[in-house]
């Protein structure tokens, strides 16, 4: 995995958890708006909207650079629209990055042994 691909996956991973948290807070604010006089929906809606747009931009970049198949790309997109999906996306992306580092080290060691 090259540095640009690793950076794209890292950006997506770093925005996925805050996007999930903002979605959950927005849901709580929506319930509070309907049950009390508290109305933070406009503020949280804007915050969540910005984070969601960033997630989609970073998702498209990661899809392009990591050359995911359609199933993997669709999975990461669906996780962005589920209330807690961002947490699962972050975990999977971290695992994917760790696996790529391990594979890269194995290729380097294999090259050093054969040389």
How does this structure look, described?
It is found in: Cell membrane. It comes from Streptomyces actuosus. Pfam families: DUF3817 (PF12823). The protein has 115 residues and is mostly helical. It contains four helices and no strands. The protein is elongated. The two termini are 22 Å apart. It has one domain. Helix 1 runs antiparallel to helix 4.
List keywords for this structure.
4 helices, 115 residues, elongated, 88% helix, mainly alpha
Short recap of the structure:
Helix content is 88%, strand content 0%. It has helices at 3-35, 41-66, 70-81, 85-114. Helix 3 packs antiparallel against helix 4 (85-114).
Give the overall pLDDT as a whole number: 90
Rg on CA atoms, Å: 18 Å
Shape type: elongated
Helix content estimate: over 70%
* Beta-strand segment tally: 0
So what's the oligomer here?
A: single chain
The tally of structural domains comes to 1
Distance between the termini: 22 Å
Number of helices: 4
Uncertain runs: none
Provide the succession of SSEs. HHHH
How much of the sequence is in beta strands? under 5%
| Structural class by secondary-structure content | mainly alpha
Pfam families: DUF3817
Keywords: Cell membrane, Membrane, Transmembrane, Transmembrane helix
Protein name: DUF3817 domain-containing protein
Domain DUF3817: 9-95
Give the SSE map.
Elements: H1 3-35, H2 41-66, H3 70-81, H4 85-114
Helix pairs in contact: 1-2, 1-4, 2-3, 3-4
